[in-house]
Amino acid sequence: MTTLTDRAGPHPARWLARNPRTSGVGAALAAFLVVAFRARPPGDLLAALIVIVPALQAAFLAFIGAIAAEDRDVPAGPAALRDLALWFGATFIAAWLFVLFTQASIDAFVRFGAPPMIGHTV
């Protein structure tokens, strides 16, 4: 039986250190979901999905950009930490804006008299 550290690939901690942009995107998604759900716990599954789905969309787009922009030749150090912080911040803000836009769109849909498909969620 093999464990995660016995396999032939790189150790997870080394992979995270060598891919700071991708690590920043993943950390931002996790941090955003924790902050969003602690600040305003969802009442039901649909309210949770209104936060989760746009956040995943923002993280997916950022993940594609992070994978394309990763520079594997640069050793870990201050530049890697800067990249992690920049991608973390940009992804967190993008997820926040995506969720705000989604919630505002649903609210506008209901306020302008369209039939409420999911009720008043904002």
Count all strands and give the number: 0
SS strand fraction: under 5%
Number of helices: 4
Distance between the termini: 50 Å
Class by alpha and beta content = mainly alpha
Mean pLDDT: 84
Poorly predicted ranges: none
Produce a short descriptive summary.
With 122 residues, this protein is an all-alpha fold. The chain is built from four helices and no strands.
Topology readout:
Blueprint: H1 12-18, H2 20-39, H3 45-69, H4 78-111
List keywords for this structure.
122 residues; mainly alpha
What does this structure look like?
- With 122 residues, the protein is mainly alpha-helical.
- It has a domain at 18-66 and 76-111.
- It contains four helices and no strands.
- α2 (20-39) runs antiparallel to α3 and α3 (45-69) packs antiparallel against α4.
